[in-house]
């Protein structure tokens, strides 16, 4: 395309829920009877690292068994059809990548990676298996999940803000817009950039001036993608 439209997508757990990965805020949600304080905080890691590792090892296997759904595939299809698609996701799974998207920024880390407990730059891919006590980084420190826990900083947030500022259209999919600082990303989009929220509860979640599309991620994103491919742009009817 002569003037390649730049779609920036901000995705949350709702998009992965349709692939069978439970959402954090569901009544039977991601943590499955584990209080956040027990599995997703630095203090939990200091108190009982084996419990934290066991929890993420289970989640990791569930992610490996999950498959990309219609929403993931629709976004990858737009990229394949010549659109510039940048995805900023709160999700720690790799479903966007497996669907075929190539420009994915994981705000909260990636469950299929381990990292050093003493050097955040030392990351290790986990093509199979999990992390066990006694698995060390090259500096001799215990490996931990490469995820951002509650109470930790989000190092990629400035990069996400820069991406949002370049959007021709911002599409928010499957996030409650409740977890900070990620939820404040919408403040970094240009005032004249169109935005839409795709979620079954979009009316309740959408800030003023943002189009609410009250449907599932699979249905809403697929419909938008089909429309945009036909038009060759990111305009709404």
Automatic annotation (TrEMBL):
<feature type="binding site">
    <location>
        <begin position="174"/>
        <end position="176"/>
    </location>
    <ligand>
        <name>NAD(+)</name>
    </ligand>
</feature>
<comment type="similarity">
    <text>Belongs to the sirtuin family. Class III subfamily.</text>
</comment>
<feature type="domain" description="Deacetylase sirtuin-type">
    <location>
        <begin position="1"/>
        <end position="231"/>
    </location>
</feature>
<keyword id="KW-0963">Cytoplasm</keyword>
<dbReference type="InterPro" id="IPR026590">
    <property type="entry name" value="Ssirtuin_cat_dom"/>
</dbReference>
<protein>
    <recommendedName>
        <fullName>NAD-dependent protein deacylase</fullName>
        <ecNumber>2.3.1.286</ecNumber>
    </recommendedName>
</protein>
<feature type="binding site">
    <location>
        <position position="56"/>
    </location>
    <ligand>
        <name>substrate</name>
    </ligand>
</feature>
<keyword id="KW-0520">NAD</keyword>
<dbReference type="Pfam" id="PF02146">
    <property type="entry name" value="SIR2"/>
</dbReference>
<dbReference type="InterPro" id="IPR003000">
    <property type="entry name" value="Sirtuin"/>
</dbReference>
<feature type="active site" description="Proton acceptor">
    <location>
        <position position="108"/>
    </location>
</feature>
<dbReference type="InterPro" id="IPR050134">
    <property type="entry name" value="NAD-dep_sirtuin_deacylases"/>
</dbReference>
<dbReference type="InterPro" id="IPR027546">
    <property type="entry name" value="Sirtuin_class_III"/>
</dbReference>
<dbReference type="InterPro" id="IPR029035">
    <property type="entry name" value="DHS-like_NAD/FAD-binding_dom"/>
</dbReference>
<feature type="binding site">
    <location>
        <position position="217"/>
    </location>
    <ligand>
        <name>NAD(+)</name>
    </ligand>
</feature>
<feature type="binding site">
    <location>
        <begin position="90"/>
        <end position="93"/>
    </location>
    <ligand>
        <name>NAD(+)</name>
    </ligand>
</feature>
<keyword id="KW-0808">Transferase</keyword>
<comment type="function">
    <text>NAD-dependent lysine deacetylase and desuccinylase that specifically removes acetyl and succinyl groups on target proteins. Modulates the activities of several proteins which are inactive in their acylated form.</text>
</comment>
<feature type="binding site">
    <location>
        <position position="59"/>
    </location>
    <ligand>
        <name>substrate</name>
    </ligand>
</feature>
<dbReference type="InterPro" id="IPR026591">
    <property type="entry name" value="Sirtuin_cat_small_dom_sf"/>
</dbReference>
């Amino acid at each position: 395309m002569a003037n390649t439209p730049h779609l920036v997508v901000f995705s949350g757990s709702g998009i992965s829920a349709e692939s069978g990965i439970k959402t954090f805020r569901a009544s039977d949600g991601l943590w499955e009877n584990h209080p956040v304080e027990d599995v997703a905080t630095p203090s939990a890691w200091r108190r009982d690292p084996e419990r934290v590792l066991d929890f993420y090892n289970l989640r990791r296997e569930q992610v490996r068994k999950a498959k990309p759904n219609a929403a993931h595939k629709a976004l990858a299809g737009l990229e394949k059809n010549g659109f510039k698609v940048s995805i900023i996701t709160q999700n720690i799974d790799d479903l966007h990548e497996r669907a075929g998207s190539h420009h994915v920024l994981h705000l909260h880390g990636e469950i299929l990676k381990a990292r050093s407990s003493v050097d955040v730059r030392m990351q290790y891919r986990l093509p199979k298996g999990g992390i066990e006590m006694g698995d060390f980084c090259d500096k001799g420190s215990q490996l931990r999940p490469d995820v951002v826990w509650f109470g930790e900083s989000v190092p990629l947030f400035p990069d996400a803000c820069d991406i949002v500022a370049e959007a021709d259209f911002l599409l928010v999919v499957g996030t409650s817009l409740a977890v900070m600082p990620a939820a404040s990303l919408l403040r970094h989009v240009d005032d004249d950039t169109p935005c839409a929220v795709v979620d079954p509860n979009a009316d309740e979640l959408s800030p003023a001036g943002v189009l609410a599309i009250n449907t599932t991620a699979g249905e809403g994103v697929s419909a938008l993608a089909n429309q945009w491919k036909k038009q060759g742009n990111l305009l709404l009817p």
